[in-house]
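Morning!

As promised:
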Amino acid sequence: MKRLFFSLLTTLSMATFAVADEGMWLLPLLQQMNSKAMTDLGCKLTADQIYSINHSSIKDAVVIFGGGCTGEVISNEGLLVTNHHCGYSSIQALSSDEHNYLENGYWAMDRSQEIPVPGLSVTFLVSMEDITNQIVTAEEQLRKTFADSADVDRLVSTSMDSWRQTLVDKSNEQNPNCRSVVTSFYNDNVYYMIVYKIYRDVRFVGAPPASIGKFGGETDNWMWPRHTGDFSMFRIYAGADNEPAEYSTENKPYVPKQSLKISLKGYGEGDFAMIMGYPGRTQRFQTADQLQLMMDTHDVSIAARTLRQEIMWKWMEKSPSIRLKYANKYAGSANGWKKWVGEKKAFKDLNIIGREQQKEADFMKWVSKNKKRQAKYGSALQDISESVAAQREARLALTLLTETTGRIELAGLARDFSQSVDDALESKKDTAEAMRLALDDMKSQYDDYWEPLDREETSALLEHYRKNADPKNYLEGLGGDFATMDLKKYANDLFDNSVFTSAEKLESALENGYSHIMKDPAFKLVESIMDGTMKYFGAMYSRDDNGSEGAKAFTAGLMEWQKGKPMYPDANFTTRLTYGTIKSYSPRDAVKYNYYTTIYGVIQKEDPDNYEFRVPEKLKELYQKKDYGRYAMPDGNLPCCFLTNNDITGGNSGSPVMNANGELIGLAFDGNWESMSSDVMFEPDLQRCICVDIRYVLFLVDKFGGAGYLIKEMNIAD
Ligand code: ARG
């Protein structure tokens, strides 16, 4: 199997240029794979201006925002813009019933009003280096060393782990204040050492109210035509040396190596557009069997979330306070739910599995033509199939367990508490202090907790689990026979007797000591869920069989098959570039969607009786007066959102959309309903990236938010 590396490397280096649209390309390979196609499409930049490790380039302005989004630096004073839905959890955490920034929006009117966000970080890419050859050579040497041992695979794998760690340690030493990681690409066929620098003093600068930043809510989510002002702004702070520093009033705004210029000139259909960012996960190299299991898993998740979201929403509608507490939990759940519903529909409409099967048949035909290929790739698909079959039951069971019992917040609170206490005890704190620290850690969780909601969810989710689980997987240790016990009564007893239902109860329970708290009924539930989880995880991981080897061989085979055509690896939260054009589309027969929307659409969608479609008075006034300032289009209208045919996925949220000069024209924030299968297959005719226009963003900062002073620090192209 190890020989695969070489054929793959040759394939990569022989690649000719890619065509447009499809592809989440690796920045270090742009010159080799993409620059000609980009120039042909109208790009005016060289690959070196986009990505260089020797001098500043666009990549120095594009960051990982928090744990799973992208952001970009738009001033020399560390001002950053990302999506509203990316800032969402931070904005919620800073909000209270009295100061509800999520609901009402917020703008710092000077630096002193910028609000620190504990726990939020911004990560810069410092460098990435292909270390595949080093890894292959090291592994080959180890294989020779251990050749005579019966246990050669295990010995090689453990030695490789420590070999890698040494490499990481060396890189960390050479790059102070940085974090180095070895990341694999193309299903373990290529490896890069990636160096990141993480800034931890990040402050909230401002955001529009939810009625703009999340306009259209879950109804419009994943859909076009769109009218959402999906952006929020933050500022990165650094120590006196411009290096990362913990929060301090002494810190200064970070001075970036590069910040993005902004264009207010707009775009037309067919104009070049590119997006740089951190796409999370795609499944472009999965087989039909893997995809089928993915669809079946979706069914399990969708059913459980439908139930849970109904309960959450019912409570959220009761009061603004509960709505605020559950805003982020609901949005996260609903976003995944709708994505899977759409993905299932698109799989059917676009015959994704059938097309994948056809591709596999063609691939096998190619493999069978040649002995060498047969030896390398002949068993790949079979290996994957067997592994999928072996894991299937465990995967579905684990999904059911995590989407039901895994969502019982009370169990999560109890588990987090004991985890925190254990951590504190390990760092030699005494028990009383450890419990105090754990309680402090959990205060913010209780801020976002509503006991009656959790109580209702718990009995409903347990009931759902019982109805759908195989009886052999029923929970044990809950004080009765799970098959027949009264789960509503169980939940009520649990919530009546547990101290984890509120921070106050937990606090007063601390006096009775840790061993007393450990007798809390919530721990019985935690244990019972953990037992189930371990059982399924065990079953899943012990039955990989040759699955990962198969995936590695299949990917390598595909690359050899398509030799000469450049291939991009699956998304894996590393930085990528996608390029294409501004483009309209036809969602179905006789219907054509324009490539941009305007504020007029916001007014048209207004529905004062529907929380998701309220329009703030001030926005209506600005609309009536056509007071759009320099942000209007030449025809006097105010642009809102637009479409490109760029190839993105979750994680790209907040990514800069740039024109041919690398100037910011918008922020990517969503995909469209007709191509929800896009993580698996790119659809040139249907797949679009939904972006918010930077002119709408700046109009909202300036005219609506009254924070026009921020525009002065930006670099607006003339
Ligand atoms: N669908 C978007 C994504 O996954 C997130 C949009 C968030 N908005 C919302 N209404 N939930 O990137």
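The longest strand covers residues 190-199.

Hope this helps with the figure draft.
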